[in-house]
Amino acid sequence: MRKVLFALSVIGLSAGCIVAYLSGITQPPVPPAFSPATNPYPKGIYANGIIESDQPSGENINIYPEVSGTVKQILVAEGQVVKKGQVLLVIDDSIERATVEQIESQAQAAFTTLQELKAQPRKETLDVSEAQVIAAQAALKTAQDSYDKQLAADSLDPKSVSKDALDSARNAVATAKANLDVASKQRDLTKAGAWIYDINNQEKTYNALYKSYLSASALLSKYTLRAPGDGKVLAISPIAGSYVSGQGTYDTYTQGMTPVMVLGAPPAQLSVRCYVDEILVPRLPDPSKMKAQMSVRGSDVKLALQFVRMQPFVSPKIELSDQRLERVDVRVLPVIFRIEKSRDVNLYPGQLVDVYISE
After folding, report:
1. Where are the domains of the chain?
2. pLDDT tens digits along 249-262
3. Residue 326 in this model has a pLDDT that exceeds 80
4. Which of residues 349 and 318 earns the better pLDDT score?
5. Average pLDDT of every residue of the chain
6. What is the DSSP letter of 44?
7. What is the largest CA-CA distance in the chain?
8. CATH, range 121-193
9. What separation in angstroms does the CA of 119 have from each of 22, 130, 189?
């Protein structure tokens, strides 16, 4: 029994020595995955930056519809290069299209009525008026001949014609003359054509309907979103069947309204918008002498930047993690640089970078 206990003690002591030896071994430190951003200049100014497409002014192009409705069709994909005027998205326009067709029909009817007024007198109508005048003239001649005969008979023998018959013949002549006068004036009215005031009124009615048609057509065109210029589709928020409005579309992740689409410049053109703290603004060098270097976070990539312009307006800083809501009590000056892009580096609009600026 003593031998067993002695053996176990020796084994335990040996195991303890081995564990103590292994614990005392110092492991070499793990090298960092990438080197942190360092200031490459003796007196460089640090600024946060965000990559965006290279625009003559402003940032990426946020597209909002001018009308509300359900998305009917999306004709582009994220990452696709588009040309100016290319259709990007179509909103359901069934109601507005029917309205346009209705107003167009009303305008066409008004124009047809205007043409009808201007085309007067119609030959067939004028022929009828001429025939009525000829008929009235014949009726007058018949009445006049009858009256003349009765008047001649009365002059030969007053007892051959009654006074009542003579008066009736005289009245028939007067009535025939009046009918001829009416027929002649009706012919002259027909020959004169439409009244100028009727033509002017109909012309104004047509113009009003035509302008309503143009207005409705212009509104109808708003249901089709087109690319405002050449560029690349950076983001598409809605899907077919979702609702969009002038405020954009609802984002279930941020629980806010976002642009329907975001377009950037062609893929080869990128820039960096830096936000320089107002405390460091006096230290900014002259733009003609300004140099800058960008560090891509999560890598050892460092790229030279080319100064483009300043946005000469110091404004409250917007936290780049949430440009819609988060603000801090800091004011910054935006400075825009163009990236001298390398083919071996993957860069995307919206990516955060570290920038150092110096002379």
Report:
1. 45-54+269-358, 61-92+223-264, 121-193
2. 988 887 888 999 99
3. no
4. 349
5. 86
6. P
7. 189
8. 1.10.287
9. 113, 18, 14
Task: Give 168's contacts (C-beta < 8 A, 6+ positions apart).
Answer: none
The answer, yes or no, to whether residue 93 has pLDDT greater than 80, is yes
Phi, psi of 174 (to 5 degrees): -65, -40
CATH number of 45-54+269-358: 2.40.30.170
Residues forming a β-bridge with 257: 250
Contacts 24+ apart (CB under 8 A), 297-302: 297/37, 297/351, 297/352, 297/353, 297/354, 298/33, 298/34, 299/34, 300/34, 300/35, 301/342, 301/345, 302/40
Query: Exposed, middle or buried: residue 6 (CB in 10 Å: 0-12, 13-18, 19+)?
Result: exposed
Q: Flag whether the pTM goes above 0.70.
A: no
How do strand 302-310 and strand 256-258 relate by DSSP bridges? unpaired
**Which of the listed ranges 190-194, 195-199, 288-292, 309-313 does the model predict with the highest average pLDDT?**
195-199
Taking domain 61-92+223-264, whether its CATH number is 2.40.50.100 is answered by: yes
